[in-house]
Specification:
With 73 residues, the chain is mainly alpha-helical. Helices cover 45% and strands 11% of the residues. The protein has one domain.
Amino acid sequence: MALFVRVNQRKSRFLCKYIDLVEKGFVVFKLPGFSGNLRKEITKMSKVYFYDPGVRNAVINNFSPLNLRNDSC
C-alpha cells in the first residue's frame, strides 16, 4: 500500500477510500505495521491482504499451477 500511495500521490485519497470500501465488503483486511522498535511501529503503514487468494490471482491475472508460481510455498 505504501508503494501505491507513493507512486500515485494524486490518487492516494481515492485509493484509501477504495481500500476502506473493499475492507468493509470483507474482500481484504489490514494488519498494522509491526516492528521491534516502537517509534518505527507507529510510522509503519499497514499491509493489505486478500481474504481469498483467488481474488488476488484474478487481480494480477495469474492462474498458473501452484508448482509454476513463484508465490507458492
